Amino acid sequence: MTIFQTIALISLFIMGTWGTEISSNDTYGDIKYDFINLYDKGVSVIEITKKLITEYAVEIDSDDDNHNFWFAIANLQWECKALDKTIYNRVKKIIISGKDIELWKELNASPEDIAERQIALTSFLQKIETEKKTIHTKKVEKFSDSIFEKGDCLIFKLYDDDYCGIFVLEAEKKTKSGMNLIVVTDIKKSEKPTIADFESANVLCTPNQVALNKYEPKEDICWYDATNFKKTNVSFKKIGQLLVENSYDSSKHYVSLNSWDNLKSFQDHFYKHQEKEKWNKHISLKSIRTIPKKQANDSDSFWQKLKSFFQAK
Length: 313
Known about the structure:
The protein has 313 residues and is an alpha+beta fold. It has helices spanning 3-14, 26-40, 45-55, 57-61, 66-79, 85-97, 99-106, 111-128, 195-199, 262-274, 285-289, 293-312, and strands at 152-157, 163-171, 180-189, 205-211, 214-219, 221-224, 237-241.
């Protein structure tokens, strides 16, 4: 590679270009991402174009990116069978006038690259002169409901045939993953657990490494998504429900995702190897599913005072 070819290559990379095709630059990639994202959400091509013209004002004013912007918009409009005549004429003028080729020459592109660019421009213009036969298919975003309902008391068997109990603290509806927030309780018994067992249960705390040879107890509460439930080999059985007064959000609370099979494998490992280690941390299941009475009474008292105040008026 000659020094001139090296300089040309550096110049093109500075402007975010890695090839001679219409789509071979950063500007095209950015615009395509924004355009298709809005289009899939149902925004009209006209509104998308207006929005992107505003947001990409810097690129439009740039000698280096101006052409790439309009080429991208024209191509994406064409893909959606909505190529605006004004946009088409603008692109045609850029290509027919030779302005884009002149820009490549100013950037010291090699004769081979300039020739390839000219072919790409001619092919592009010929393509958009004819309406696309099929429209770009919108990607339909799928939403899921959680597998279990909020307050469900679930049981399944461990390696030694004992039953364990897990509790559903939250159930998300119509979200991308359909999350359940699940609490692993300390219930472990040979006979089938009852609702009474769940009412008096504690959260199972397992060792969590915080430093070399240092562990601290951590409550076993994680989110589990609906999309992966069908892959699990664990057989869950619901035995009843308990009230959950608190609300939890997967983006704010206990932000940890786990797989359904781990509900069994982690407990199997814990009871085989770590149960003998005593963890002095006791969190009742009731404390995280209900609002403390004092807090509830304080709230009632506030509203009662407020009501009395206005009645006195």
